[in-house]
Design goal:
With 296 residues, the chain is of the alpha/beta class. It contains twelve helices and six strands. A six-stranded mixed sheet has the order 3-2-1-4-6-5, sandwiched between helices.
Length: 296
């Protein structure tokens, strides 16, 4: 894309933010801030669109964030942005996974395996997912074995809800905030792309009020990188040499399509965190390695 195209995207996003936020007081909104690339870009873009805003940047420390991310967020909070607020998930991750189930491949796939493990093949939605014929939202042939009695690993998509959605929901309820702004982008694929197809970047309640706003939804990787360079935004060290991570969500997350490469990087440069991931996610990693990781 040409620079002119990026400038047009920037203008469009700034105008969209102003339009959506014009009647929403700062104290009713908060940014779901992960300390990663997209949420950092979102924070800067909000400031560009709404100079002087007092919107909280809320970081949830789940216990599965990279140490460098936590340090980066705390440094930003202390030196540059007092609007950053840190909350804790308060969840024993290993126990939660053992009881509720492990994430596998994607949220969509995990949800259907969980439905099967709870109800068997009685549900038409499960039958449709299994017999989808290779469509965008159908089960890969390589994973059909997970819809059999022989597959014993408990799977679900509850991990994200327990570690992020529920803590943020508690925060919103306690503070009276009604609108969440996130850095989620449709280009990340999976359920995020599905939601973008159906909602765009604005999610409304039945009464028409907005409860979630994803300003970056249509933005490409190229635009994000261009904006970071243009605004000289400092990211967490994990995005630079020698790490070169492409994402920095929960460390070792099985939903990460680059998990194999990230584990190799962690083993070399942050071995303690690598060891933690091997302990927490071992049942999923064992299965990934048995079937060739995420080459599905």
């Amino acid at each position: 894309m040409k620079t002119e195209d990026f400038e047009l995207t920037l203008f469009d996003r700034v105008e969209m933010i102003r339009s959506v936020m014009q009647h929403i007081p700062d104290d009713l909104a908060y940014i779901s801030y992960s300390g990663g690339k997209d949420s950092t870009v979102l924070s800067h873009l909000i400031d560009e669109a709404l100079p002087g805003n007092r919107i909280k940047r809320v970081f949830c420390n789940t216990g599965m964030e990279h140490v460098s991310i936590v340090d980066y967020v705390k440094e930003q909070q202390k030196k540059k942005d007092p609007r950053i607020e840190i909350i804790l998930a308060g969840v024993n991750v290993k126990k939660m996974l053992e009881e509720d189930g492990y994430p596998f491949k994607s949220k969509i796939h995990s949800e259907f395996v969980e439905r099967y493990q709870n109800s068997g093949l009685k549900l038409k939605s499960v039958q449709k997912y299994i017999a989808g014929g290779g469509g965008r939202y159908s089960c890969p042939k390589k994973l059909l074995y997970q819809f059999t009695d022989e597959f014993k690993l408990k799977i679900s998509q509850k991990c994200c809800a327990n570690l992020k959605k529920k803590p943020f929901a508690r925060y919103a309820k306690e503070t009276g905030k009604t609108l969440t702004l996130t850095g989620v982008r449709a280009g990340e694929g999976g359920i995020r792309e599905f939601q973008a197809d159906n909602h765009g970047c604005v999610f409304r309640n039945k009464d028409g009020t907005i409860h979630k706003f994803n300003p970056l939804s249509p933005c490409s990787d190229a635009f994000i990188d261009w904006y970071i360079k243009k605004r000289k935004i400092e990211l967490c060290e994990l995005y630079y040499d020698p790490f070169n991570f492409k994402r920095t969500g929960c460390k070792g997350c099985p939903y990460n399509i680059h998990i194999k490469e990230d584990l190799e990087q962690m083993k070399q440069f942050i071995p303690n965190e690598y060891t933690q991931c091997e302990l927490i996610w071992k049942p999923v990693y064992d299965e990934y390695r048995r079937i060739g990781y995420r080459n599905l």
